[in-house]
Amino acid sequence: MANLIQMAREEIAALIERAYQSAVQEGLLPSGVQVAGKVEIPKESKNGDYASSYALAAAKPLNKKPRELAELILAHLSLEGSGFERVEIAGPGFLNFYLGAAWYGKVLSAIEREGAAYGASDMGKGARVMVEFVSANPTGTMTIGNARGGVLGDATAAVLERAGYEVHREFYVNDAGNQVEMFARSLEARYLQLLQGEGAAEIPEDGYHGEDIKELAQRFFEIHGDAFLSADPARRREEMRRFGLSHNVEKMKTDLSRYGIHYDQWFLESSLYESGYVEETMQLLTDAGHTYEKEGALWLCNTAFGADKDEVLRRSNGLYTYYAVDIAYHRNKFCVRGFDKVIDVLGADHHGHAVRFAATMTAPELGMEDKTLDFIIMQLVQLLQDGKEVKVSKRSGKSITLSDLLDEISVDAARFAFNAKPTNHLIFDLDIAVREDSENPVYYIQYAHARICSLLTRLQEAGYAVPAAEAINPALLCAPEEKALIKTLSQLPEEIHFAARDYDPSRINRYLVALAGDFHRFYNACRIQGEEQPLLLARLKLAESVRAVLKNGLDLLGISAPEAM
RNA sequence: GCGCCAGUAGCUCAGUAGGAUAGAGCAACUGCCUUCUAAGCAGUAGGCCAGGGGUUCGAAUCCCUUCUGGCGUGCCA
Q1: Nearest nt to A314, CA vs C1'?
Q2: What does pLDDT average to over chain A?
Q3: Residue A173 parent element (H or E)
Q4: What is the distance in angstroms measured between the alpha-carbon CA of A444 and the sugar C1' of B41?
Q5: Nucleotides of chain B within 7 Å of a protein C-beta?
Q6: How far is the CA of A308 from the C1' of B2 (A)?
Q7: Closest-lying nucleotide for A135 based on CA to C1'
């Protein structure tokens, strides 16, 4: 699990610390001054492979001019036995370090040795983390927003797994409560309309008016005929509810699976009612004195925990609210199932809920006050077609569903496009996503992979096998394009580390674009076939390493790595 | 009103807990295939990092403030 970048950073920090101590010994600098000089990778390689701002940061506490201090450090700095071959002072006092050839060889060795695990770390130390995502209401079809949430959640989970967490992917099925009741009533109305004409029944005011409800009623009719026409309405609705939910949940499972998303668990909201856990949780809050009754409803005194308003837990009609069940659900995640950390991926329209729920979490009686619940709030997706915004409206039936989308564009393109940026506002341009050409960056990456595969085949036919990392001379890989490429290869572990830390898997997309770009530039500048054997073998090894890392990253994102295009 | 997210090239976006001359991709223009995939590469052009203050050696980045946009502030989920 080599993070060669981090190792290089630590090495530089140690080299400077040693130089500082050595200057102290000679009485040139005061002792005991702790300065955390930052080691960074300069934007331009002419400023070194790594640069330390130590002299800039330490100038004041050491009472020296930055440039002067840098000279002093440099004079006491020994690169003997380090991965660096050269260090110099530049600009206002940066210490710029240049890597030696052996370091480049180490990168290729690490990729070879670690294989598909390259980039992994033990950051999570095996902690059990649940990522709950999509959790679309089973009263309808999944939207573009769910498509984004699916990719974001799945990719975040993948990145956390690679970073050493034990990850559990969960879909929360809202198969109980008010919305489901509305769903059943809407279905019932459509069923009755089907049998007795439009005027026979009316969809409830807050019901579901979409075409999908009509279709579901039609299917129900095809199976049961008019058997439920004269049945007890409560029984009829129960039957239709069950039918509708199971149909919709199956559809979601199918669509998500087609999308490459597989859950460890589909958790039923209804199970929280059945186990009495909702009731128990409410009792807990009531016993603790955190609730009050007002106008026939039971309220949670959430302002006592710092929220901006109180929440209704039980409506005056006796039904529990989403909020109440959500408290029970999160208690279940932490206290029953024992997750160390829980991440909820939510749409921006739920951010208010996230803020208020965080307040509720601090109620000590719930047993979650010291637990980690993180929210990934993604801004809404704006859909663009023919350069114009497509208004998403469930009611008008104009919304584009996840399965519509997958009929239009490849899973690879969708997974890439929805992970193209962090959680902020995303503009999804259908016209670009549909295109299978260079306008679509996913093909840029896949093309690099396919190009290398073809290259490897050609060389194999010519009798050259990919050598072991130990067998090549890394000093031969000295062209700027080769060095840049290897440095980018070395960055995957760091990228995964940051992606896991910040819950930002879109870093991997950007990383892969950069890696593909570095490869294409290398490919253009450096030939392989026809070179002297040592150089040919070194470059062959480099190409194979790039292929492996591209595959590695694409796998992480659930995107295919084609061998030919 | 209050809260959350945002404002960087014509468009879509990066900018790795403050670093050196602000970067990609697309679109535009100019070149590069008799040799490993041109779905590629090289180059040109394109910027008051929304505006204004502050913090310091140094700010797109941190603080304050104004403006603009999206979302939230339901006995909806």
Answers
A1: B75
A2: 90
A3: strand A166-173
A4: 13
A5: 2-6, 12-16, 19-20, 22-27, 35-42, 57, 69-77
A6: 9
A7: B77
Q: Which residue has the higher pLDDT, A476 or A59?
A: A476
**A155 CA vs B76 C1’ separation (Å):** 29
Name A89's bridge partners. A95
- Residue A338: helix, strand or coil by DSSP? coil
**Residue A460 token pair:** 């194999």
Nucleotide nearest to A437 (CA to C1'): B39
ipTM of the complex: 0.93
**Integer distance in angstroms from CA A161 to C1' B9?**
38
C-alpha to C-alpha distance for A201 and A139, rounded to whole angstroms: 20
Residues β-bridged to residue A97: A50, A87
CA of A387 to C1' of B10 (A): 14
Mean pLDDT lowest among A139-143, A362-366, A446-450 = A139-143
pLDDT given at position A140: 87
Closest protein CA to C1' of nucleotide B13, residue: A421
Structure tokens that stand for A425 in this block = 């506002």
**Span A392-450, pLDDT tens digits:** 554 444 567 888 888 888 899 889 988 887 766 677 777 766 666 666 788 889 999 99
Kindly report which amino acid residue has its CA closest to the C1' atom of nucleotide B77: A322
CA–C1' A56–B58 (A): 10
> Which nt sits closest to A421, CA to C1'?
B13
Confidence band for A93, pLDDT divided at 50, 70 and 90: confident
Classify strands A166-173 and A372-378 as parallel, antiparallel or unpaired: unpaired
CA of A217 and C1' of B44: distance in angstroms? 62
| Closest nucleotide over all strands to A54 (CA to C1') | B19
Tell me which residue has tokens 């996840």: A402
CB atoms within 10 A of CB A36: 9
pTM of the model: 0.93
List, for residues A223-240, the tens digit of each pLDDT value. 999 999 999 999 999 999
CA distance A381 to A94: 43
Q: Output the distance from A426 CA to B3 C1' rounded to whole Å.
A: 22
Specify the DSSP element, H or E, that contains A274: helix A269-274
Nearest nucleotide from residue A44 CA, by C1' atom? B20
Predicted local confidence at residue A46, as pLDDT: 78
Q: How far apart are CA A81 and CA A79, in angstroms?
A: 6
Smallest CA-to-CA distance from A252 within A419, A408, A139, A397 is with A139
Q: Which pLDDT score is estimated for A437? A: 63
Q: Which helix (H) or strand (E) holds A347?
A: strand A341-347
pLDDT for position A396: 45
Backbone angles phi, psi at A477, to 5 degrees: -85, 70
In this prediction, residues A377-382 reach a mean pLDDT of: 82
* A297 CA, B7 C1': Å apart: 43
**pLDDT tens-digit map of A545-561:** 999 999 999 999 999 99
Cα dihedral A12→A17→A18→A23 (10° resolution) = 130
With contact defined as beta carbons under 8 Å apart, do A192 and A200 qualify? yes
